[in-house]
Amino acid sequence: MFNTTAMPFVHDTSFLRLFPVSQDQSATAFNIAILSTIVGGVYALYRRATKISVAHVAGPPSESFLLGNLPELFQSQVGDADFKYQKEYGDVVRIKGAFGENRLLISDPKALQYIFHTSGYNFLKWPERTEISRVLMGRGLLWADGDIHRRQRKVMLPGFGGPEAKAFVSIFRRVGAEMTNQWADRLVSSPDQTAVFNVATWLSRATMDSIGEAAFDYQFGALMNTKNEFMEAYMGLMSDTLGSPSRSAILMQTVLPVWALQLMSKYSNRRNLKHARHTAELANAVTRQLVDSKSDALLQGKGNKDILSLLVQANASENAATKLTDEELLAQMRTILLAGHETSATTLCWVVLELARHPDIQARLRKEIRETEAAIHARGGSDFTASDLDGMPYLNAVLKESMRFHPAVYHNFRQAVKDDVLPLSQPITTTNGEVITELPIPKGLKVILSIAGYNRNQEVFGEDADVYNPERWFRDSGEKKGPNVGVYGNLLTFAGGVRTCIGWRFALYEVQALAVEIINNFELSLTPEIQKLRREACLVMIPTLEGVSWTENTQASRPCLHTFLRQSQPRSQAECSKAVALRKTSIVTPYSQVRWNSSFSKPDSDYIESIFSTPSSWNQVVAEPTSKKASQSSSSRPIDLKAQEQRAFADLFDEIFKAAEVAAASEVALTSRRGGIFTSGETSTSGTASASGMAPAFELPPASEGYKVEPDFGVGLKRPAFSSEFYDSIRRTPGKPKLAHVEDEEFDKKKEEMNLCRTDYELLDWVLVDVFAEAQVYEEEARKMDLRTRNKRNITLRPSWYPNIIACLMQTFREKYQNPHTALAIFNYAKTTSIASYAFGCSTQAYNELIETYWTCFRDVNAVLDAVKEMQVNGVKSNTKTARLIDTIRRQAPTENLWSEEEMPMILARLDATRREAGGDLTSKNYKAPGMKFLDQWKVQELRDDPYDAKGFNKW
Description:
Layout: H1 25-50, H2 70-75, H3 80-89, E1 92-96, E2 102-106, H4 109-118, E3 123-125, H5 127-137, H6 146-156, H7 162-167, H8 169-188, H9 199-216, H10 229-234, H11 237-242, H12 247-255, H13 258-267, H14 271-299, H15 307-314, H16 326-357, H17 359-378, H18 386-390, H19 393-405, E4 411-416, E5 420-429, E6 435-441, E7 446-450, H20 451-454, H21 458-461, H22 504-521, E8 522-526, E9 533-538, E10 540-545, H23 554-557, H24 559-568, E11 577-581, H25 615-622, H26 628-632, H27 643-666, E12 698-699, H28 723-730, H29 745-755, H30 760-788, E13 794-795, H31 802-816, H32 820-833, H33 835-841, H34 844-858, H35 861-873, H36 880-892, H37 903-918, H38 935-939
Helix pairs in contact: 5-13, 8-9, 8-22, 9-16, 12-27, 13-27, 14-15, 14-16, 16-19, 16-22, 30-31, 31-32, 31-34, 32-33, 32-34, 34-35, 34-36, 35-37, 36-37
């Protein structure tokens, strides 16, 4: 709600002198209009001239209008585009997104330090990337932003400190020994003491078992090939759901709103999304059991030292502001499971691969390991400790160089919360020849933080940054060049600042312990297939071999997924390198990773043509009219899409519609529980609400009058001729809409259903089915009734609860879930679905919520004024709540410092005019019209409550 505490009012009304009082009031009004037009035009030109843009930053030409440079970034091997752009254009590159949108690809150290560290939460994650995190891991630490992220991280920190991570080294060593023992047993049976292993699967199992014991005190049994559905679902989840995105997938993630992506992720029949949903269900079930078990142990005083036990203990606070919800707690466990085991396994794979490539480095590392082992035995120890691992300089140099050269996470995606200025390490030359040392960026700009590019920045890591060389970490200035960015070797592999990987110490000790176990027992070498190596982009960078089929041992690790994926994609790929055991002279594989195409594209046999399937139809959408004037315009032109782009665009819409169809089909028939539609014997002839609480009936216009025509609801747009009478027939009351009363029984039932939704996502899901879908079915049944009862055609097209529920939902999303964007989406959906939906749903209450959302959440005066104008154009009555809202905005606007001294008078004049047009109860004695002499009295006016404000729903 609004803050009614007024700031001291400045009694400077000098701007009023611009409008001298004249005997000719019409002339005065005309002069004001002319002056306002001039001022508005000058201001518009000023804003256009001073608008912040990054279009002048050098960058590659756009690959296509539809997708820009995104396919090259997301479909090529990791780093290919980054390294090429960095070499050609420098450390700050302008790239194109969908439909020509400007974005930045940044590898400049100083700019990265500013974004990761200095700016705090002023650069948030892209909404579409946040949704990917939610689908895979829930609303946990990798999903959260801002205050939610700060709270979650604070609760989780006790489980990821330095002492806690060091305590897990013995677990990592034990798991590593179990893995290498099984390798040795397999090698003994080999005739030539050699063998090729699918090490990708082995390392993934090993890290999963490590996570199970250290994080949950739970035995997954991955290395023992224990068959369970949970392990089968998690193996290969990243590559299955995110690998090799098609153009349609890139387009969907780029242009669709989050609610549409949520709809698709929940209802789409795509195999990769079904895999993600299935894994999420299993993970929630397993983690819930683990959380319940740890909670019971805590109550009995039997706490343990695993991460989950520490997290449950830290979350035992009674202060809701400093603890996690049940959903968040489960999400953290899913995040640790997926992000923890996948990134560690991938990092270790790249370490082993580079050691196989460089026998000299491998031999030197083995020598250091053996010397340390001898020192451990000499002091009476039995195994490596955390101090021993930290005390091996060459081991850590190898790990730093491997993480630099092959960062598991290669991109971070951020969006500027406000206009900002990026500092630069090196000056850059813009396309217009200007040399700049800092770069202004506009609010909302999307930036890609190239971790891969930074980790090979020659200004930081030397001229040989493109060469794998652990020796660089023994140079005097090896890791000290440039600003302080990362927590480990000044690398960005673990990100930095408020977004630093919370488990980086955990991951580091895990990789150290497993690497020591492998190198101490086996000698690694490469197979010829290494020439087909690919750096596959699957949210993490996975090494794969193009065109190499690999079947050994994968049946045991992922029987369902592998069998299916191998059959559907014969081009499965794996990386196979050999390793010779020192004492047994045998060969194993340092890495093997099955890769498949998880494209969103449909098989040609299943493809259904859409209206966007041909170039001609696309030309009709974007081409200008074939007039002489249009042909001379350069602002827009016909664009012929490539076949891939046509397919992507068609797939985008097909996917949305399919998800919507599945969503509707998944629910029970709504018509079986709908009630209240007037039958022929119940039809009201008076046009008022029935005794059952129905919304007012009205008479449909004949079909010839076009009642199925959608009106244009934009401000100032001409509505169909029948619209005014149409709305008047719906709002058939003396002066106010005849809405369902807040105490209406059906509305109370809806509020109870709303209260059962625990999250904004659950509420949105309920809205789509139990509000909009149900109301649509109601309308369809009403129209059928109209066809059967042409002699008695007074019917209603929306349930009695519909007018109030839209406003109630908007307020709930805005205030309860702090989600104003969804509140606006609810209004827009009700507004554009149909005439009946707009007439019943977008009531005075809903418009008041719209106005309040625009101001309280966005401080958008123009949107407020447009909403009030829209009410007037479409015949929606304003009430004292509307007037009170505008009054509040009028009081608060001068204190917001959002406009210059020149702009403020114009803003206030527009608000004053809108306030007078909005009306409301103006009978208060303290009220003075805006613009009069005693403006301070106008601040403290008292408006009588309007019984139709209908704010009763905020008490449920």
